[in-house]
């Protein structure tokens, strides 16, 4: 795959040369993305399985440390957090895996549409993390403001 089409904002297609060195870098990036995607799948599945087993662990803690622990609320909350974290980990892993598969197919078979799909998935991967980070920044800012307001009310 020597040349790729790059569409500019006005809709005109331009030719762009992909050098052997750049293709080599992208092939290696694809291999790492494949590995990280698979590892993410494994960790997300283990996290989701942990979400379903946390109630047994919390029940055992209640037996050990007494009835002062609200086991039902704690196990429900932890199960939800583990499940949500597992799903949040699965989505970017899927995007990375699809990026790697698209690059591999595109370079091995000279299929431009596979390479385009791969870069679309890479864009989705970064968009996912960007939205998640913005959401966390907003959440932590609100918690910080609430903590300051709550601290000011006590004084």
User: How many domains comprise the coordinates?
Assistant: 1
Please state roughly what percent of the residues sit in beta strands, choosing from under 5%, 5-15%, 15-25%, 25-35%, 35-45% or over 45%.
Answer: 5-15%
Strand order of the largest sheet: 1-2
Q: Would you tell me the overall average pLDDT?
A: 87
Largest sheet: 2 strands, antiparallel
Based on Cα principal axes, name the global outline. elongated
State the helicity in percent bands: over 70%
Structural class: mainly alpha
Which stretches of 5+ consecutive residues score pLDDT under 50? Answer: none
Q: What is the radius of gyration computed over CA atoms, rounded to a whole number of angstroms?
A: 23 Å
For the terminal residues, how far apart are their CA atoms?
Answer: 68 Å
H/E element string? EEHHH
Q: What is the count of helical runs?
A: 3
Number of strands: 2
What does this structure look like?
This protein is mostly helical. The chain has one domain. Helices cover 83% and strands 6% of the residues. The chain contains three helices and two strands; from the N terminus they run ββααα. Strands 1-2 form a two-stranded antiparallel ribbon. Strand 1 and strand 2 form a beta hairpin. Helix 2 runs antiparallel to helix 3. The longest helix is centred in the first third of the chain and has 46 residues. The protein is elongated.
